[in-house]
TrEMBL record:
GO terms for biological process: copper ion export; plasma membrane copper ion transport. Residues 340-414 form the CusB-like beta-barrel domain. The keyword Transport applies. Residues 198-336 form the CzcB-like barrel-sandwich hybrid domain. This is Uncharacterized protein. PROSITE patterns: PROKAR_LIPOPROTEIN. GO terms for cellular component: membrane; outer membrane-bounded periplasmic space. GO terms for molecular function: transition metal ion binding; transmembrane transporter activity. PANTHER family: CATION EFFLUX SYSTEM PROTEIN CUSB. NCBIfam families: RND_mfp (TIGR01730). Belongs to the membrane fusion protein (MFP) (TC 8.A.1) family.
Amino acid sequence: MTGRSFLYFLALFGTTACGTSTPEATEGAADEPAGGAITQWTDSTELFMEHPALIVGAPDKFAVHLTDLTDFTPLRSGRITLTFTPRGGGAPLVVVQEAPRAPGIYGPSPTFTQAGVYDLVIRVESPQARDSLFVPGLTVYANAAAAPRDSGGAESGIAFLKEQAWKTPGFRSAFATAGELAGSFEAPGMIEAAAGRFAQVSAPIAGLIDAAGVVNAPAPGSRVSRGQTLALLSPSIGDAGSAAYAEARARLREAEDEYARATRLLAVEAVPQRRVHEAEIRLAAAREALAGYSGGALTEGGRVAVRSPLTGVIADRRIMPGSRVDAGALLFTVIDPSVVWLRVNVPAAQAANVSRTSGMEFRVEGSDRIYQARRMVSLGSVIDSVSRSVPLLLEVANADASLKIGAAARVFVQTGQREAGVVIPASAVLDEDGRSIAYVQTEGESFERRVLDLGARQGERVSVRSGILAGERVVTGAAYQVRLASLSTAVPAHGHEH
């Protein structure tokens, strides 16, 4: 057998996951010899094999399901060789099937000539996988009367057929392993704009929104550059702010004329250098005064050009063509999302376990993606009396803008301590009414729902204090589809294809 394999053998009583049962069928099945089912995993292949009671002289049709564990698809081609070796001595029984009867399903029919215990080796030779699987201790009975009877007992667990798993996009499973992770705790957080990367652009004076300018105004979601014109504003006649704006413009023109005149006179040595320097100072002051109203952006028509103070994305736009706005009215909100802050409310009981060297990762609502904080901006030193938490600010790179301002986050803060236990992929954990659950594959087509007590989390792995044992197989992809199957009491109508 290649790699580590785990073997689970169960003599199934009554009908298996291959079909449904009725009270009448169950009553009759109690007189039938009991068959069996075997589930086995190697590093590359999953085997789920069902067989009837093995009896000398009876052609016993096996149902061999083979899954390629590199992508969890059925083996669609290739030969399998079954070699049954009797433990009591004698020639082995060899059965070869060149191709599957249906994708992933082989149906060899060995005929035994002597009773006893056999060890089975299944060799897989397929373009998808080359493997060898060992199945020990298959008992062959001399006649049907010697075989154990089927008790007709009811099945337990959640039925999820191999055909369903093969047709479910993203279905995956993995072994739970014993391991050790860095200790951590969970805290709530919120994505917010970083300091210096958020600006609310207001009307510098009262006026009318220019209709022509609105046509070219950037819409929410549009990228803008620093200094780019966002809208044009025509000052309102008679408004106090507009009057001050007009006066500032007049003073700027006077300062420009004075500076030009002083420069000409200096050229013919009619005035001293000091006169030009004084005119230059008055010109700079006039420009700064006007900049307070218009950002220094004036059009030839005397309109105010409202400009973006930073490079980023328009998050909000509140302008209507021809509408009148008061001075200070909010027109645009501009955000640079390339870097954001994550504000975390650290529980007071855990505040002492947080330092600047603590590793931190998080995920936001509606996403399974794990993000890493780039650095700690600040850690509060005062506990909030209401929330009983300490504020923590983290800086997060957001080049792809996948983190949205205002999104809630679940933050996992590492404490530096180590925690040993059973480790499973974080993708195996589902939230069900506030409880953490996972689905364990007990057999090839049988699953169990387990309630988990989670411990530390590190990257894409999480430790489990109780609910799962090392060596058990957990569903890591499309677990929600297994959950839906658990809500149904009927086997899917298509059944097995063999």
